[in-house]
Specification:
Order of helices and strands of chain B: EEEHEEEHEHEHHEHEEEEEHEHEHH
CATH topology of chain B: TIM Barrel
Strand order of the largest sheet of chain A: 4-3-7-1-2-6-5
Oligomer: heterodimer
Strand content of chain B: 15-25%
Strand order of the largest sheet of chain B: 3-4-7-8-9-10-15-16
CATH architecture of chain B: Alpha-Beta Barrel
Distance between the termini of chain B: 45 Å
Order of helices and strands of chain A: EEEEEEHEEHEHEHEHEEHEE
Radius of gyration of chain B: 18 Å
CATH superfamily of chain B: Aldolase class I
CATH superfamily of the largest domain in chain A: Nucleotide-binding domain of ferredoxin-NADP reductase (FNR) module
Shape of chain A: globular
Structural class of chain B: alpha/beta
Largest sheet of chain B: 8 strands, parallel, barrel
Strand content of chain A: 25-35%
Helix content of chain A: 10-25%
Structural class of chain A: alpha/beta
Number of helices of chain A: 6
Distance between the termini of chain A: 43 Å
Shape of chain B: globular
CATH class of the largest domain in chain A: Alpha Beta
CATH architecture of the largest domain in chain A: 3-Layer(aba) Sandwich
Number of strands of chain A: 15
Number of strands of chain B: 16
Chain lengths: 265, 313
């Protein structure tokens, strides 16, 4: 009946200067790509994907963006969290050659996914990119898994983005399937590089309710709700969208165009 | 859907022919042309926009929704992109679908309602709904207008003067003598009445954190718990009104919807059930109404007999 629980933080783990993984014993099963609505009883509730799930203990990797995530990521063991969920449509792990591309904190759900693909007998290549080295998350976790791991910081060396690096990796070896999560601009830049490869993307949109009634996260023109029909969308669903990579909506529902996208019809 | 055309869900409402009597209530989806289109494709006969205000509103800080055994508590806080942006979304929706739209408006005084209605009448919507009854912004605006017969009449009258479109007043269950308020709306020129907005507001407490579950503290109560109250109010009000009633409050099944029609509603809103049962509930309710019509040998929704008025008082 109630899909909300209140739990104490069981452990925390710093992830560089701007992120922390909060561990909770939530007693729920969360599939890769699904999310929880997380609140701290001080105002604010946001969707977070789960980065780790081991024996009932969930890891929620919180990257600092604004006041709410700053407060959340500085919480300590014993602190109280309100969790609603798990919500949303998960990734579908495939047993073939899989390429996982993560931008910034978008890498978090891909860690859980990598483990699921490996468990299903698939082979995994991971490309993780961020603007700076500090912002590349969970690299140590990926390095411990039997997979091919690549990372890039845009302010170092050749300045490759995750998309650039993914393109190089794909030139060497064409994957059977691509999964990606991160800022929508990154996903929009990745899509034309995939040719006819099949893919699933996880989209991030502004959410209020998380359960498909408030309409904040709906896409145009099909009206699919990122919190219910997403956040993981198949290639076919993405290609129907007119707003993908162009605009999202703010808390009022007004359109916010992505940098470089022109307001049109 | 593959059913006998002899038992049609098609329903006439204020001059428009709707494919189903089910209404997407204001506040549920309705944020964008995409979400209006989604609702239409999922089986609603008429869709309502978010309540549009003169300026954009971001709504309240979360958590703004919570479940309890009888339904849902919410305090979204009337988030909307403002009347002008909202009407652009309505225009895109109408261009793509040709379907009618109920444009919901929110303000706290007559001049603002009149200005909103003036702009809405120049838009692509088919009807105007005046949200006189949101219980979730009392901190900001005080007791909803719908508590006062005089205020309701004054605002409806002002809007009707500038508005070529039919006007529906959405009233609150949190008032005494609802029939007299509904009658006042009708006498002031309202072409219909929507009953009921969410009940309350109410409170849920997190006993571990010892704090309200919703960050705005209080929220409007919706869902199965309020169905009997909604049915009673719709029954009482429709008994004294000549104008049609859009009935809503806790409708979750086909039988609930038939009860609402029998109580006197012309159309039936379905909102909270979309959370509790998923969006597929809309077609399930459509199917339930159709099965009722077939079983009872009633040819149309309008043919569902109204419950007789008892000896009230």
């Amino acid at each position: 009946m109630n899909d909300r629980i209140t739990v104490r933080i069981a452990d925390t783990r710093p992830e560089g200067p701007k992120a922390t993984t909060l561990y909770v014993d939530a007693g729920m099963e969360v599939l890769p790509g699904q999310f929880l609505m997380v609140a701290d009883f001080a105002g604010g509730e946001k969707p977070f994907s789960v980065s780790e799930a081991e024996g009932g203990r969930l890891g929620i990797t919180v990257r600092e963006y604004g006041p709410f995530s700053r407060r959340l990521r500085s919480m300590e063991k014993g602190g109280l969290l309100s969790l609603r969920g798990p919500y949303g449509r998960p990734f579908t792990p495939r047993p073939g050659d899989c390429l996982l591309v993560g931008g910034g904190s978008g890498i978090a759900p891909l860690h859980l996914l990598a483990r699921a693909i490996l468990a299903a007998g698939g082979r995994v290549t991971v490309v993780s990119g961020a603007r700076t080295r500090d912002e590349i998350l969970l690299g140590d976790r990926f390095r411990r898994l039997p997979l091919d791991y690549h990372e890039t910081a845009e302010d170092e060396g050749e300045g490759l983005t995750a998309v650039d690096l993914a393109a190089r990796v794909m030139e060497r070896k064409r994957p059977d399937f691509v999964y990606a999560a991160g800022p929508e601009g990154m996903l929009a830049a990745l899509r034309p590089r995939l040719g006819d490869l099949d893919y699933q993307f996880s989209l991030e949109r502004y959410m209020k309710c998380g359960v498909g009634i408030c309409g904040s996260c709906t896409c145009d023109p099909t009206g699919i709700r990122i919190c219910v029909e997403g956040p993981v969308l198949d290639r076919d669903r993405i290609e129907e969208l007119e707003d993908f990579g162009r605009y999202k909506r703010d808390a009022s529902g007004a359109r916010v165009y992505f940098p470089g996208a022109l307001p049109g019809a | 859907m593959n059913h006998s055309p002899n038992h049609s869900l098609r329903t006439e409402f204020l001059g428009q022919s709707l494919p189903s009597p089910l209404v997407l209530p204001s506040g549920i989806l309705g944020m964008s042309h995409g979400s209006l289109r989604y609702a239409l494709e999922k089986g609603y006969g008429l869709v309502t926009t978010k309540s549009l205000s003169l300026s954009p509103r971001e709504g309240h800080e979360g958590p703004v929704v919570a479940r309890f055994a009888g339904g849902v508590l919410n305090s979204l806080g009337l988030c909307n992109p403002g009347i002008d942006e909202g009407l652009r979304e309505v225009a895109r929706f109408v261009e793509a679908t040709g379907a009618p739209v109920l444009v919901s408006l929110f303000a706290v005084n007559r001049p603002d309602f009149v200005e909103l209605a003036r702009r809405a009448c120049d838009g692509a919507g088919s009807f105007i709904e005046l949200n006189l009854s949101c219980p979730n912004v009392m901190d900001e605006f005080g007791v909803p207008l719908a508590a006062s017969r005089d205020l309701v009449a004054d605002i409806v009258e002002g809007v009707k003067k500038v508005c070529r479109l039919p006007v529906v007043a959405k009233l609150s269950p949190n008032a005494l003598d609802l029939p007299s308020i509904a009658l006042a709306a009708q006498e002031a020129g309202a072409d219909g009445v929507t009953l009921i907005n969410t009940l309350g507001p109410g409170l849920l407490i997190d006993t571990t954190a010892r704090k309200p579950v919703l960050h705005p503290r209080f929220g409007g109560i919706s869902g199965p718990a309020i169905l009997p109250l909604a049915l009673k109010i719709v029954h009482e009000c429709s008994g004294v009104l000549k104008v049609p009633v859009i009935g809503m409050g806790g409708v979750s099944t086909g039988d609930d919807a038939v009860q609402m029609l029998m109580a006197g509603a012309s159309l039936v809103g379905v909102g909270t059930a979309v959370w509790l049962s998923g969006i597929g509930v809309v077609d399930e309710i459509n199917l339930g109404i159709r099965e009722y019509l077939e079983r009872e040998g009633i040819p149309s929704v309008a043919g569902i007999p109204k419950l007789e008025t008892g000896h009230e008082r």
